[in-house]
Amino acid sequence: ADISLNSEISTIKALGLAAVNLNKAHKIILMIDLGDLREGILPEDVDEMVEQILKVDGILLHGIGVNLTCYGGVIPDENNLGQLNEIAMHIEEKHSIKLDIVSGGNSSSIYMLEKGLPNHINNLRIGEAIVLGRETKDGDRIENTYDDAFVLEAEIIELKEKNSLPKGTIGMDAFGNNPTFVDKGKMLRAIVAIGRQDVNPSNLIPYDENIEIIGASSDHMIVDVTQSSEEYHVGGIIRFKMEYGALLPLCTSEYVDKEIR
Questions:
Q1: CA dihedral sign of residues 114, 130, 118, 75
Q2: Would you state the torsion angle of the CA atoms of residues 61, 32, 138, 198, taken in this order, to the nearest 10 degrees?
Q3: Which letter does DSSP use for residue 248 in this model?
Q4: Pair type for strands 204-206 and 59-65
Q5: Which string of DSSP letters, residue by residue, matches 32-46?
Q6: pTM
Q7: Residues of the chain predicted below pLDDT 50
């Protein structure tokens, strides 16, 4: 990597040592915590941190950045991005350096483009907006993007008509929860070969709008296909679009085949 995001001086020193050993200079973006409480140093510690970074051989302070709407759900706005802008100007003036990158967050900052980002912010780290066509402040679709760049295809391994209510005394499920059920009478239930070890079913969106995901265990997911006009069968495929919360584990699961088309 030519550039990495950092917030710990011990890590930056280790990167500097590695860079020197390779006869290289490594660029870093110093992350600043402006309220979301994930990574970053506090604003009051900026000057001390910058002074230490500038003394590390093999390291170039390439810019500063902020992370928002990822852990704490804090929305980017004129206040916190304005503060990032002010910190960038302060660093450049006090330490007589030029910051090439001032990174104003991720896909949740896209809506600020219409309002106008503070003038020093010249970078957004865009992920979900590109791969799923969705901004992450409110979860709205972004015009002229696609929401089906990633599709999950799950095979039907059982298809039977059964009751909607389990029979017997209800205790905990496999994950320690006490499930509740709605009596919908008989339903045609398809089991597909994917489960919670691979994905959170609540983050999946069936292509067929007339079917409903009703639950999942470790490696089985149950889908109500009663109202569908599709002729589903054992060995057939049910397709799903997804939210980020589904895309992440699906991409990292070794039990899910990835096929690029």
A1: positive
A2: 80
A3: H
A4: unpaired
A5: B-SSS-SS-B-GGGH
A6: 0.87
A7: none
